[in-house]
Amino acid sequence: MVERLTDLTIADALDLLNKKEISSVELTRAHLAEMEKARFLNVFITETPELALKQAEESDKKRLSGEKIGRLEGIPIANKDLYCTKGIRTTAASKILSDFVPPYESTVTQNLKNAGTVMLGKVNTDQFAMGGSTMTSYFGVTKNPWTDETGAYSLVPGGSSGGSAAAVAAGLCLGATGSDTGGSIRQPASFCGITGIKPTYGRCSRYGIVAFASSLDQAGPMARTVKDCALMLREMAGMDSHDSTVADLPVPDFTQFLGRDLKGKIIGIPKEYRSKDLNPMVAEVWDKGIRMIQNAGAETIEISLPHTKYALPVYYIIACAEASSNLSRYDGVRYTTRVPGKTLDEMYENTRTDGFGAEVIRRILLGTFVLSAGFYDAYYIRAQRVRRLIYNDFVEAFQKVDAILAPAAPTTALSYEAMKTMSPVDTYLGDVFTTPSSLAGVPSVALPIALAKNGLPVGLQVIGRHFEEQTVFQVAQALENEAHFVKTPHYVKG
Which residues are CB-neighbours of 72 under 8 A, at least 6 positions away? Predict the structure, then answer.
């Protein structure tokens, strides 16, 4: 019996549950108690303790009766508050959707329910997934469970899936759903010292996930280990008639590819990522990661992704253009809060001005601008052409290598005060190493490697070919085994 149920991995918890050494109710109660102690971190927007205990009781009854159980039966998880959950408030961390209760369930959360998971609640995010810190959330910022050198909880958890990352790192759940548009799973995973994967675009359904940028958004899991992410993604992924962008491909059992050595594997090291934006402390950990991957039996070679320098501006042109279209549905007429006006146009204006935060408004305006007459060809069409060049860079690179190893973020977790003084463009630089693979639609997993000299975790990302998550998991777990990262946040559990 473990001392703390909240320190388990998903794989270990499943083993204990199947052996009937613990119950799902015990596991769930332990996490609910931890959530109560950690409220100062502001991780959850909506807690669902009654639902969680009911689901846990049902899971235990299934096991005792010998009924067929799901592959994640009884595992407590949290959902990013972008996922529509039937009968449970879904806000996208915004004021305009602060009272929205969906009448339907997203495909990904339904898949996880079918697998037997227990939902603890909905966790914080940047508003409409727009941000890299959770600072744009209408419900306040989430604190990183890691503290600064003074012991203060002054650091951002990253974003937009900052609530998901903080929840896993602080032991408030065993796993969490996230979504990644330009790095929103991988950057917070790096900041919080956990693992998260952005699957290939089209591997998971986007149905029921509040949309930001439809050609980029992708659901993915966040957990403590590579194996835990493989277990979650196996259930989350799959064909869905509700989403025409989902690939009609079988979902492999990703766990079957774990534990294999890397002999014969060639890992590319992109020279363009050695940029001026890369913090020396992160560069040092990257070099350490390269040595680790070599120790695991792989060969490393330098590669070039020549259009990397254009990825960030291309991403923000395309993402903002799609956001301006997607968010036009929030007009105060149907399912959002409404601010009255003398005319219909005035009601639209009042509702959106009051309901959207500053960052969301900024991106809508930028997107509307690049789609407007006279600028469409100059910006949006040109960005789409460069996106194709970025895609081609990866295709060409993967003719030489099996995977790519790179930093997940250019820095360790930043402080709230530092981010308040940064311009919007400076904050966007946090995605400089993740946007290229998002634009190309390739899978990428971020995992913790070591602590930087400032005592904070640094994650690297393993990038793979389209729909070859199994290779990404294989390489990532070999790296995980070499890293032996067992550091826990400075957050002291009661």
Answer: 10, 14, 112, 115, 116, 117, 231, 232, 235
The reported pLDDT for the residue numbered 434 is 98
Comparing 215 with 277, the larger pLDDT belongs to 215
Residue 312 lies in a domain: no
The catalytic position among 24, 133, 161, 184 is 184
Is the backbone peptide bond immediately before 190 cis, with ω within 30 degrees of 0?
A: no
Residue 398 lies in a domain: no
Structure tokens at 2: 């473990």
Whether this prediction's pTM lies above 0.70 is answered by yes
Could you tell me the CATH number of the domain that includes residue 108? 3.90.1300.10
Let me know: does 205 contact 216? Beta carbons within 8 Å.
no
What tens digit of pLDDT does each residue of 414-441 get?
999 999 999 999 999 999 999 999 999 9
- Classify each residue of 260-286 as buried b or exposed e, where b means 16 or more C-beta atoms within 10 Å of its C-beta: bebeebebbbbebbeeebbbebbbebb
Mean pLDDT confidence for 171-177: 98
The verdict on whether 54 is a catalytic residue reads: no
Options 23, 160, 161, 179, the catalytic residue: 160
Q: Single out the catalytic residue among 59, 80, 143, 444.
A: 80
> Is 211 part of any domain?
yes
Per-residue pLDDT reduced to its tens digit, 273-323? 999 999 999 999 999 999 999 999 999 999 999 999 999 999 999 999 999
Indicate if 184 belongs to the active site: yes
- Residue 63 domain flag: yes
Helix 24-37 and helix 10-18, axial crossing angle in degrees, nearest 10: 140
Predicted pLDDT at 492: 57
Residue 246 and residue 223: Cα distance in Å, rounded? Answer: 23
Q: Which domain holds residue 16?
A: 5-260+472-483
**How many independent structural domains does the chain possess?**
1
- Catalytic site residue 420? no
Alpha helices in 261-343 (DSSP H): 280-295, 311-326
